[in-house]
Amino acid sequence: MIKLNAPPRRRSENIVPMINVAFLLLIFFLMTAVIAPRDPIEIDLPTAVGATDGEGAIALFVQADGTIWREGAPTTALGSLVDLDVDLHVAQALDGAVLAGILEDVKQAGAKAVSLVVSQP
């Protein structure tokens, strides 16, 4: 017996190309992402207009009480900074005289250049 009014069979959707595109996008974003270590301490940075972002420099963090952090740990001696660029993350509440002393210490440690890191307004 032949049915003349049989509904047409619905063809299933092929979602493999969509999955491939999703995985390709995931791989693209993972390969192009910049993964940077988190700051060891939370510092309220001063603000400035027209600041530039330094890359490839040693990061020093200075708390409001003058404690200096290098490579994730508090330190009393800066060590050698010969021919290195230094990014100085200074708390906004740090006293200017203390900052001047720290800048002198960084200079004596042999830093090539010192950049003061600030936040954008």
Descriptive overview:
With 121 residues, the protein is an alpha/beta fold. The chain has a domain at 58-117. It is built from two helices and five strands; from the N terminus they run H-E-E-E-E-H-E. It has helices at 16-32, 96-108; strands at residues 58-62, 68-70, 73-75, 85-90, 113-117. It has a five-stranded mixed β-sheet, covered by helices on one side. Strand 2 (68-70) and strand 3 form a beta hairpin. The protein is rod-shaped. The termini are far apart.
Short description:
With 121 residues, the chain is α/β, with parallel strands linked by helices. It has helices at residues 16-32, 96-108; strands at residues 58-62, 68-70, 73-75, 85-90, 113-117. It is 25% helix and 18% strand.
Topology summary:
Blueprint: H1 16-32, E1 58-62, E2 68-70, E3 73-75, E4 85-90, H2 96-108, E5 113-117
Parallel strand pairs: 1-4, 4-5
Antiparallel strand pairs: 1-2, 2-3
Rg, please? 28 Å
Mean pLDDT: 85
Q: Describe the global form.
A: rod-shaped
Note the run of SSEs as H and E: HEEEEHE
CA distance, first residue to last residue = 80 Å
Low-confidence stretches: none
Proportion of beta-strand residues: 15-25%
The total beta strand count reads: 5
Strand order of the largest sheet: 3-2-1-4-5
Main beta-sheet annotation: 5 strands, mixed
**Helix-strand category:** alpha/beta
Number of helices: 2
Query: Helical proportion?
Result: 10-25%
